Amino acid sequence: MKNKKIGIEVRKMSELQNTPYKISFISGKGGVGKSVLASNIAYVISQMNSKVLIWDANRKFPNTHLFYGVEPPIRLGDVYKGIVPVEKAIFKINENLHILSDEPATFSDDEEDKFRFDDIYRDLIKKTSYDYIIFDTPAGLNNINVELALISDLNCLVITDEPTSLLDGYALIKVLREYMDIDKIKLVVNNTIDYDDGSDIATKMNLATEKFLGFKAEVIGIIPYSRIVRQSIIKQEIFVQTDPDEEISQAIREFCGLIFRRTSRTFLHTNEIVN
Known about the structure:
Strand order of the largest sheet: 3-4-2-5-1-6-7-8
Radius of gyration: 18 Å
Distance between the termini: 34 Å
Shape: globular
Largest sheet: 8 strands, mixed
Order of helices and strands: HEHEHEEHEHEHEHEHHH
CATH topology: Rossmann fold
Number of domains: 1
């Protein structure tokens, strides 16, 4: 990764006017439930009279669309190849919730994708009008992940109680601090027994970051374990919609309420989104 080049490109993109509030869901380790959370959170925010785009940024193994039970006919791969403009790849899940997804097992060059992403992102902002863009990123670290973290207003680092999740999460923060203000990184603790369990997990993470990085991440979400998550994945359903009274659904709504209150912005719906 070339941090100087990335930093220059991101500063250019940050100058775009009327950009939506951008949230990246990141993790050092796969399998922590990041995509499930991003999909359900995007749905809830879209129900708050906000226009939301969820962007599956995992070019090699995209699966965010499956949580909604949809198969977009045009994918991001066609946009990267220059076959169609980005607005043609946007798939409408409902009136306020749209998705950008890719073909499964797409072969892609990380460095080349970064430069194409710059153009695609600028084009998207010019041609659409969203209140929020939610990036569901692949686990770990690559050029695209760094760039998404840089341009995002909020980076939700999803962790669990697994030692590998905490270790890889720490490593991710350590690398990202070379590129960005890490105060934009907040912790979301997933699959917890209860609130105290989630707090203990976050404390373990912050003991390491405070000692070695001088940084303590704010905890903005503690999401309990629930059996309905696995069921919703199998059925390709959004559990906050099908099981709104479950504890995990309530926790998701509380998280979204916090995000909604923090984004003290006036959103102008001036452009009709092209589908």
